[in-house]
Amino acid sequence: MSERLGLSSRSIRYYEESGLVTPAGRTTGGFRMYSEFDVQRLLGVMQMKPLGFSLERMGQVLGDLDVLRDDDADHADRMQARARLSDLHAEMQEALASLAQRLEIARSFTHRLDEELTELDGSS
């Protein structure tokens, strides 16, 4: 899994110790075995990390997703999990809009600098 995800074995063990992922089992030699579900879970962790999510918040998000996947989960728990995930989705949409605006400003400023530098180079 380390090679597939580009994540060190140490990081995977850290996320395991933090309770974010649990190996599906172990080989007779003691190596951890991970399912496709575990891989997807770690991909989610890898996406949340650069967004500044704490381990606690990552755990809550993954836990809420687990509740929604659990057909036997209590209705009230499912509704609370869905509400938290909906709030997170809205938060991520706002972050995307803000980043898009900042990216456009950076593009515009870069274009302006290009023009200024070209003009200054022509006058030298």
TrEMBL record:
The entry's keywords: DNA-binding
InterPro entries for the chain: DNA-bd_dom_put_sf (IPR009061), MerR-type_HTH_dom (IPR000551), MerR_fam (IPR047057)
SUPFAM superfamilies: Putative DNA-binding domain
Pfam families (alphabetical): MerR_1
Domain HTH merR-type: 1-64
SMART domains: HTH_MERR
UniProt protein name: MerR family transcriptional regulator
